[in-house]
Structure formats: structure tokens, C-alpha cells
Amino acid sequence: MHRINSVLFKFKCAFKGLFIAFTSDNSFKIHFAATISVIFSAILLEFSKSDWMIIILLIGLVLVAELFNTAIEFLVKLFTDDYHELAEKILDISAGAVLLSVIISIIIAVFIYLPYLL
Ligand SMILES: Nc1ncnc2c1ncn2[C@@H]1O[C@H](COP(=O)(O)OP(=O)(O)OP(=O)(O)O)[C@@H](O)[C@H]1O
Q: Which residues are involved in binding substrate (predicted)?
């Protein structure tokens, strides 16, 4: 029973983490809105099974990158609110990771969407 409770507690914490990211981070909200639009367009265009799988992987890639970025932003804020050269590097690299995931996703999405639109 204690074990089940501890597993349930961990799930609760993880879902709370998703909620915190959604409510406190504007970029996460933007990526979430983009995710909804992609899912709707995929339904409308009747994506094949393999295209759905790739799109879901790309959505996961961007959202997971954004979640880590949000966690790193909180971590930096925990240590300092003042300007710090290292904090800048950490935040810029973290933001760069999100940007890279978005660029990769857009490039692959273009290849997936084009045949449905032409
Ligand atoms: N303490 C700091 N020291 C140095 N530079 C900082 C610091 N805090 C923020 N920055 C700079 O400001 C940029 C934006 O950081 P910030 O954490 O405010 O992200 P944000 O644009 O608010 O992102 P989000 O919208 O995801 O919350 C960083 O990439 C970094 O260059």
C-alpha cells in the first residue's frame, strides 16, 4: 500500500510539474497552442499512421525541450535574480536547445505536410 501511494505521489508530482510549466511559462503556452493546431490540422488532412507517429515524436521533442528549459529557468532564478555571466550562458544554451528542436520539427513538418497540401 505504501509502495502504491509513493508511486501515485510521484505521478501527482509529475502532473503538477506539467501544470506549473503550463501556467507559469509563456513559451510553454505558445508551444502548447501550436501543438493543438498541429493535431487539428493532422486530423483534417487525414495523416497516415506513420506521419502521425512522426508528428507526435516532434511534438514530444519540442514540449520536452521546453519543459527542461522552464526547469532550468527556475533553477537559475533560485540561485540569482542578479545579472550573472554564467546564468546568461546557461539560459541562452537552454533556450538554444528549444530553438533547435523547433527548427528540426519545422523542417520535418514541411516534408510531411507538403504532399497533403499539393
Ligand atoms: N540572471 C541573469 N543573468 C544574466 N542573463 C540573464 C539572467 N536572466 C535572464 N537573462 C538573459 O535573458 C534571457 C531571457 O531569460 P528569461 O529567463 O527571462 O527567459 P524568458 O524570455 O522569460 O523565457 P520564457 O518566456 O520561456 O520564460 C536569457 O536567455 C539570458 O540571456
A: 66
